[in-house]
């Protein structure tokens, strides 16, 4: 095995064994070079191989860190982000950014949601780090109690899934670059590849909610199993 291959294998083994959990800082290339008695370029080649494999991620001015494994969500399901993060033993949080009551005029996505809406936005957090940005509209005619919910304590999606039944849903999925608001909220560059999911839900023809969630491209996989 080449020396850079040995460095790559040692770090990968530490990550896969759990000795270095998600978020753990990888030694700087100069530190790896000193540990293995090699040139910095050799250590850099090993780190780059781990980045390409998706095991670690680089952060500007901070270094390299063990990457978070992506959450897998069914394409035809409505994922509960809070439940998915907690299911793998990670702390979850929701940071509300905006909240207001408004009419539906001038919002194309709200065409089926009635006249009185609750509009809010926020950031889903995993281990205190941004996981997804969400902008949501809730039809208060279909879910009037939503106006009294403290969404700093529970995420809007989790509350809706447990309190308001739905019978029909629609997804629109696209690869996007984040706009300024989203890039600042997620702490990513505007050139970062992200996954945007637009979702509408109805109950017997009555619109309940519209949501647009934007994820950094490496934190969520959409999966489905098909039969003939």
Feature tags:
6 helices, two-stranded antiparallel sheet, 228 residues, single chain, 25% helix, 6-stranded antiparallel β-sheet, alpha+beta
What's the structural blueprint in terms of helices and strands?
Elements: H1 3-16, H2 29-36, H3 40-52, E1 56-59, E2 63-66, E3 71-74, H4 81-87, E4 92-103, E5 116-126, E6 129-139, H5 156-163, E7 168-176, H6 180-186, E8 194-203, E9 206-216, E10 220-223
Parallel strand pairs: 3-10
Antiparallel strand pairs: 1-2, 4-5, 5-6, 6-9, 7-8, 8-9
Describe the model.
With about 230 residues, the chain is α+β, with helices and mostly antiparallel strands. It contains 6 helices and 10 strands. The strands form 3 sheets. The protein has a 6-stranded antiparallel sheet with strand order 4-5-6-9-8-7. β1 and β2 form a beta hairpin. The longest helix has 14 residues, at about 5-15. The radius of gyration is 21 Å and the shape is elongated. The chain starts with a helix and ends in a 5-residue tail after the last strand. The model has no long low-confidence stretch (mean pLDDT about 85).
* Class by SSE composition: alpha+beta
Strand order of the largest sheet: 4-5-6-9-8-7
Number of helical segments?
A: 6
N-C termini distance: 45 Å
What proportion of the residues is helical, as a percent range? 25-40%
Percentage of β-strand residues: 35-45%
Q: Roughly how many Å is the radius of gyration?
A: 21 Å
Give the low-confidence spans.
none
The count of strands amounts to: 10
Overall 3D shape = elongated
- Global mean pLDDT: 87
Following the backbone from N to C, one meets helices and strands in this order, namely HHHEEEHEEEHEHEEE
- Biggest sheet descriptor: 6 strands, antiparallel
């Amino acid at each position: 095995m080449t020396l850079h291959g040995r460095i790559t294998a040692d770090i990968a083994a530490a990550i896969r064994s759990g000795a270095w959990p998600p978020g753990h800082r990888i030694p700087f290339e100069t530190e790896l070079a000193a540990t293995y008695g090699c040139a910095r370029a050799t250590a850099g080649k090993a780190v780059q191989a781990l980045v390409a494999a998706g095991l670690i991620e680089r952060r500007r001015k901070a270094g390299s860190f063990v990457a978070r494994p992506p959450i897998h969500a069914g394409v035809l399901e409505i994922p509960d982000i809070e439940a998915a993060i907690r299911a793998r033993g990670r702390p979850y949080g929701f940071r509300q950014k905006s909240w207001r009551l408004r009419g539906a005029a001038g919002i194309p996505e709200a065409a089926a949601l009635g006249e009185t809406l609750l509009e809010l936005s926020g950031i889903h957090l995993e281990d205190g780090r941004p996981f997804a940005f969400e902008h949501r509209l809730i039809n208060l005619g279909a879910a009037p109690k939503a106006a009294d919910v403290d969404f700093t304590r529970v995420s809007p999606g989790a509350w809706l899934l447990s309190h308001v039944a739905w019978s029909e849903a629609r997804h629109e999925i696209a690869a996007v670059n984040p706009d300024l608001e989203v890039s600042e909220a997620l702490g990513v560059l505007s050139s970062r590849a992200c996954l945007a999911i637009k979702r509408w839900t109805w109950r017997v023809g009555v619109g309940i909610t519209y949501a647009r969630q934007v994820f950094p491209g490496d934190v969520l996989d959409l999966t489905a199993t098909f039969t003939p």
